[in-house]
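Folding follows sequence. Below is one example:
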Amino acid sequence: MAAVLSRPSFSSVTELLKPITWFPPMWAFSCGVVASGVSPDGRWPLIIVGILLAGPLVCATSQAVNDWYDRHVDAINEPNRPIPSGRMPGTWGLYIACGWTVLSMLVALLLGPWGFGATVVGLALAWAYSAPPIRLKLNGWYGNAACGLCYEGLAWVTGAAVMAGGVIPDARSLALAGLYSLGAHGIMTLNDFKAVEGDRQMGVRSLPVQLGIVPAARSASWTMAVPQLVVIGLLSHWGRPGHAAVIAGLLIVQGVMMNWFVAEPSKRALYYSGFGVPLFVAGMMVSAFALRSLIAG
């Protein structure tokens, strides 16, 4: 008889926290830092704390919370994950989610009132996304919006505000953060194609469940593309046609990949996420540098 685990291994905890998912909010925070136009000299400790908070703490918390409350769905879709496989025994998944929440808030105190407040909002969205009674993820429109806001917009605005000493970023930075948050809604939909069967059985109304596979793929593609078109227009209007042209080039390549993805969404969503999404986030940094040059000029 196999031995019953009393506590998870380090590798199981790491798998639960999903380091591969930490990149988007860390990148968005860095974009906010760049877009602020403030020199990083003397502020590197704050920047490092902010990046760690965005990824290994707040984002990791959201992953642990999600896996705990999704354990029954994962038992159908991905039974090898730490909790349904038994490698994360008992209520350890919940303990880790709660512990990482407290740790995130303690570290956030180092960033001052704005950083702490943003962290509380991010954590609240993380719990609201997965945990009952709210469980935003039960509807793909609301759940993906919460993720996009937390992963991209909130992280961007926090990076910019922390660099500016707690001052709210200017309207141009807020506009870019909002547009890329909207685009991230489409990115979140890409993650739903692998879980359609379990979502249907457990009543999770993801967009592939609500709209159908191909219509959801088209919706995700347009949701990613349209905000980038608006960014291109804004940068051109603000006198940064070179930066706009770079993002336009990135979008053209994405468009080719989107057509390929829509042809077979269930098989190709993972590949598009791996190769197309980096082009989307590259455009974020290009727009951040465009705004930085505007502020400096």
Notes: The mean pLDDT is 93. The domain at 10-296 is CATH 1.10.600 (Farnesyl Diphosphate Synthase). The chain has one domain: 10-296.
